[in-house]
Design a protein that fits this description.
Layout lengths: L12 H8 L1 H6 L8 H29 L2 H21 L5 H23 L12 H9 L2 H24 L13 H6 L1
Length: 182
């Protein structure tokens, strides 16, 4: 029989909360910690979504002639496959969830540099990393990814204002409407 302790040291959080605020503790529902199996399932489904939703983009970028971005999608997909294999054996699935979010975020940053920077339609995909972190791992992790996404967005925005480094889209002009929808 395995006993899951949701706290590391001392009394559980609920007990400390009810001691500090006894009247408020009576009216608030107790929230049980999520077992790692639930987190493991969410991370598994998130990695599978990256695999399944990323596959059409490989063909889209190959069709447009942007082979470096197609290769980046293939590398990210292989990374997801490796993470899915390791997910069975790891004790902390939330760590692999963060690695998966990091892999997706690196792909999105590279995609933004290839497709035109701050003013490209694919730049809105930066919202996926914080939302994915909140769903897969937890809301405090999403705060960290939100700060990183805002920081990278500011770098791209300042770059677009100063025009020191021009980020031109490698996607042909005839294929850009299709990529705006993707």
């Amino acid at each position: 029989m395995v006993i899951i302790r949701p706290w590391k040291y001392g009394a559980p959080v609920e007990e400390k909360f009810s001691q500090a605020f006894p009247r408020l503790a009576d009216i608030t529902p107790s929230i049980a910690p999520e077992p790692s199996d639930w987190i493991r399932d969410r991370v598994r489904w998130g990695l599978l979504c990256v695999l399944l939703l990323g596959a059409p983009f490989v063909f889209l970028y190959m069709w447009s002639g942007v082979y470096s971005l197609a290769l980046a999608h293939v590398i990210a997909s292989l990374g997801c496959v490796v993470l899915l294999r390791v997910l069975r054996r790891v004790r902390r699935p939330e760590l692999l969830g963060e690695v998966g979010i990091g892999l997706l975020f690196l792909l999105l940053v590279y995609s933004a540099t290839v497709t035109g920077g701050f003013y490209s339609a694919s730049f809105t995909w930066f919202l996926v990393a914080p939302v994915g972190a909140a769903v897969l791992v937890g809301h405090w992790v999403s705060v960290r990814w939100t700060a990183l996404a805002v920081g990278i967005a500011l770098v791209f925005w300042v770059d677009s204002l100063t025009l020191r480094i021009t980020v031109e889209s490698q996607i042909p002009i005839t294929d850009q409407p299709v990529h705006s929808l993707a």
